[in-house]
Amino acid sequence: MSAVLNEKVTSLYDFSRFDKIVQVGCEHGGLITSILKANPRAFGVLFDAEEVIAGARPKLEAAGIADRCAAIAGDFFQSVPAGGDAYIMKWMLHDWDDASAIRILKNCRSQMPQNGRVIIVDSVRTAKEFDELLAAADLRFLRLIPTELPTSIIEADRC
Questions:
Q1: Which of 48, 106, 118, 138 is geometrically suited to a Cys-Cys bond with 52, CB 3.0 to 4.6 A?
Q2: Which residue in 17, 94, 128, 143 is the catalytic one?
Q3: pLDDT (mean) for 92-117
Q4: 94 is an active site residue
């Protein structure tokens, strides 16, 4: 299901305007691989715990995108890599309580440019829940894109 969702996200959301896409919480890189294959001028960054990053590196090489995707280990509760035009998270925020999710979102916001985006791929009960979560991180809910799967794409920018 994850591979199907990766392809669906890539087909439904236009990543072509971004030069640098940071995936926070990387699931071994399936989503960023799909995005980078569809957007050959973009550069990607995977960011997660060392054990996850170690498993992702061989997959990036096998997919032929290792030269366009850095794999960086770290703690997203402390910080995230700087300079992404887009920060994307897939099936990640629901793993954490609201305070932890807000901390992750604030870390993304602090590193992105004024015109940057936060993109969340997750199960959505109501858009209002994400609107409130994003607002607490000083982000603005822009839109929700259904995927025909039990997940949606939420787009946000800086307030």
A1: 48
A2: 94
A3: 96
A4: yes
